[in-house]
């Protein structure tokens, strides 16, 4: 079976990622529904417009978001930021998203278009500052507002909403650009108090994949009641350890946005940062966000390997992250992984040029570097550098076994502290160059 | 004519870089000689050991160097630093360099080996702290000291030194690893006072090209008399605008070193930072170093294009450089250049995520981005963004003409100040991945 191309234009691998990573059923949070359709912005007639709508009216919903730090922020990013500022993250009941056009570098008219998009949804649900907007696709082109407005109308008027698996999956498809599979996950959690709640998330591919295409987008919705400041701090913390710990090509787009809605449909006390269960929920949201972010790496253009870079026993998280990122972004490390080369020299080199906040984070005589298998085979850990000393008798056969795995781990033990950071990256292949070197068409 | 592979193992292009970039004759500085031979460290029998020797005894020579900022510094880097510290950059009469083994991540024994290498040369020339050492090649292996010691002996005892073009070219060949051509340039300069002097420079490839290969090395020698502190400040300034403004893959090795010797063989007043001609000489050394650094980019693995990224009218040099570097290192920009895609979105995006020192360096409404032809064809400048507004009617035919040139310029006019930085980069091709994904062999 080949990868389904129903919403996704490009199949770069024979590995069947669609059947591996796309769920066939799921349980979704109470009080949300998802609607999508093909507005005609995408020329191929695929789904390109979606809305997540909160229908729970028992309590006001809350919203939080983390936006790109790129100095060129696209219109939908600027507007969504403003909506959150004005609303204080309360009473946000909808997210509207389109693919095919990023509404980026479009100036004032772009901002007007984004406002109109939000305005149409606000009008339908009868409230102000109630809608976040996201766009992904070609940069520097205006939104086709006639198609988008009429599409939003249709989703509401013809009630294209649903709360079943198909509706959510279609929504995940509608945000795809050159992704080879839609990224949707959903999980039910139980807290010690007995309260059960659900997280549903979706994302679209990083790597500014197709020429002029942009954006990493992610959405997480939950039926827990969470105060807006608690939701924001929870999401910020989760993103730091998930979406900000992935690398496909190290480029950060003008549209990157991860947002979260909590509608309080579960009948329990509102979660605040001082709530006894706050930390546990934060951890659950973090690992959920990590699963979602990892799917983005798995769909990295041309990638044949999913690599976890684990920097542990670091003096602080920030420096662990800086080193994990340097390794994950190094073109030489990424090509070595592709070439299945146990090239610890390149890993060490990347660690050496990482811009540390504290020089004490790195002590040459304490560093250990290993490759770690993830398929249960032994020995799990193959040591390349022990206490700063390169192992000259590395078992090359075992190295080549581990490096031929589609999933593997690079483990760096700094031995200078107790913090750790995991980063997820992929290899760099000729196929990446081919995809990204294609002329815009 | 094909690329000569006499010292260089890999020909990745049909373009005849050897005949384009390797000089067939030259005038060299007075009072220096160059010696090289095949010591046997390189298995293929190519030149792999070289010595630059000052023979002018009219004045003490001076030396300066700029070393890698990688936290893992190779033994020759640590030792050469020490030699400069102890000698104060005076009386340094030799540079000994080997290829085939980088003597990096070799610990104390590596440092002993480097000391022995320097010791053999010092003994031959009869003075202490008179020799700098550089190594390039495989990381994590010990130098084969028997071969190297005996090679140094032979260069002196059999007088393998010469001051002619062939001797200098052979020296340039002896530092090659996977370079496809040796990098040697030499120029004569005349100062307003009438004084004539010569600069000769050589370098070896950046990009930690072959698996486990490392290092950018560069040497510049001159017959001007220059005080050691003036030489150091001149070289540091030149490197900031030359070797620190090139990108092949953004990886910085453990061995990177650029050094300079001045032997004072030209009979003129010693140049100090306060000398009337200091600034002019510094500018000449800077543009000379730029020419040398550019050769390294021209030999970038798999590269088909040489691209000048020119960020002008910036508030300060540092931010101009940070932006030029972000563009030059972006995998998406590099693949777009390869794909001959006028993709200003990726350029803007890279500018947007560059880590600026001063936010005022970037004003969206003032930015201009163009592609510039370098072959004399008109219109020379093709504007993509004017005062922050993307040009939607870009002449695609002209864009494709400019982008098909082997040499071209990306011009970013920030309009926020008067400083500028030029950075040199190459495109990213499937061939790069192939070269760097090869298993160590």
TrEMBL record, chains A, B:
Signal peptide: none annotated. It is found in: Mitochondrion matrix. The alpha and beta chains are autoproteolytically processed from a single precursor protein within the mitochondrion. SUPFAM superfamilies: DmpA/ArgJ-like. Pathway: Amino-acid biosynthesis; L-arginine biosynthesis; L-ornithine and N-acetyl-L-glutamate from L-glutamate and N(2)-acetyl-L-ornithine (cyclic): step 1/1; Amino-acid biosynthesis; L-arginine biosynthesis; N(2)-acetyl-L-ornithine from L-glutamate: step 1/4. It catalyses: N(2)-acetyl-L-ornithine + L-glutamate = N-acetyl-L-glutamate + L-ornithine; L-glutamate + acetyl-CoA = N-acetyl-L-glutamate + CoA + H(+). Its main location: mitochondrion. The record marks 136-137 as: Involved in the stabilization of negative charge on the oxyanion by the formation of the oxyanion hole. GO terms for cellular component: mitochondrial matrix. It is an enzyme of class 2 (transferase). Keywords: Acyltransferase, Amino-acid biosynthesis, Arginine biosynthesis, Autocatalytic cleavage, Mitochondrion, Multifunctional enzyme, Transferase. Substrate binds at residues 177, 204, 215, 301, 436, 441. Belongs to the ArgJ family. Catalyzes two activities which are involved in the cyclic version of arginine biosynthesis: the synthesis of acetylglutamate from glutamate and acetyl-CoA, and of ornithine by transacetylation between acetylornithine and glutamate. Heterodimer of an alpha and a beta chain. This is Arginine biosynthesis bifunctional protein ArgJ, mitochondrial.
């Amino acid at each position: 079976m080949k990868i389904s191309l129903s919403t996704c234009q490009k199949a770069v691998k024979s590995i069947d990622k669609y059947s591996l990573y796309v769920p066939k059923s799921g349980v979704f949070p109470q009080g949300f529904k998802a609607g999508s359709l093909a507005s005609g912005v995408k020329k191929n007639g695929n789904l390109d417009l979606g809305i997540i709508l909160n229908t729970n009216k028992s309590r006001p919903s809350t919203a939080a978001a983390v936006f790109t730090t790129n100095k060129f922020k696209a219109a939908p990013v600027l507007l969504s930021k403003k909506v959150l500022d004005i609303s204080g993250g309360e009473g946000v009941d909808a997210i509207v998203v389109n693919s095919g056009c990023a509404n980026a570098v479009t100036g004032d008219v772009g901002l007007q278009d984004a406002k109109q998009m939000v305005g149409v949804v606000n009008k339908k649900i009868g409230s102000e500052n109630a809608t976040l907007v996201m766009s992904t696709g070609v940069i520097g082109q205006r939104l086709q507002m006639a198609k988008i407005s009429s599409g939003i109308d249709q989703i509401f008027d013809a009630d294209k909403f649903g709360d079943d698996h198909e509706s959510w999956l279609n929504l995940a498809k509608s945000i795809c650009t050159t992704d080879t599979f839609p990224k949707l996950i959903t999980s039910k959690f139980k807290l010690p108090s007995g309260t059960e709640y659900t997280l549903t998330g979706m994302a679209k591919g990083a790597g500014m994949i197709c020429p002029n295409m942009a954006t990493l987008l992610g959405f997480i919705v939950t039926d827990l009641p969470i105060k807006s400041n608690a939701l924001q701090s929870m999401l910020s913390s989760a993103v730091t350890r998930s979406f900000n710990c992935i690398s496909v090509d190290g480029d950060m787009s003008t549209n990157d946005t991860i947002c979260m809605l909590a509608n309080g449909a579960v009948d329990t006390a509102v979660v605040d940062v001082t709530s006894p269960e706050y930390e546990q929920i934060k951890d659950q949201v973090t690992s959920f966000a990590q699963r979602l972010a990892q799917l983005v790496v798995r769909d990295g253009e041309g990638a044949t390997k999913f690599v976890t870079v684990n920097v542990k026993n670091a003096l602080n998280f920030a420096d662990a992250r800086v080193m994990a990122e340097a390794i994950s972004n190094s073109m030489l490390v990424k090509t070595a992984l592709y070439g299945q080369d146990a090239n610890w020299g390149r890993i060490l080199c990347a660690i050496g040029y990482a811009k540390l906040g504290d020089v004490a984070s790195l002590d040459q005589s304490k560093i250990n570097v290993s490759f770690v298998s993830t398929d249960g085979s032994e020995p799990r850990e193959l040591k390349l550098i022990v206490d700063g000393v390169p192992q000259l008798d590395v078992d090359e056969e075992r190295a080549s076994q581990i490096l031929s795995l589609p999933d593997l781990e690079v483990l760096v033990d700094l031995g200078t502290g107790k913090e750790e950071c995991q980063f997820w990256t992929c290899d760099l292949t000729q196929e990446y160059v081919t995809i990204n070197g294609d002329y815009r068409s």
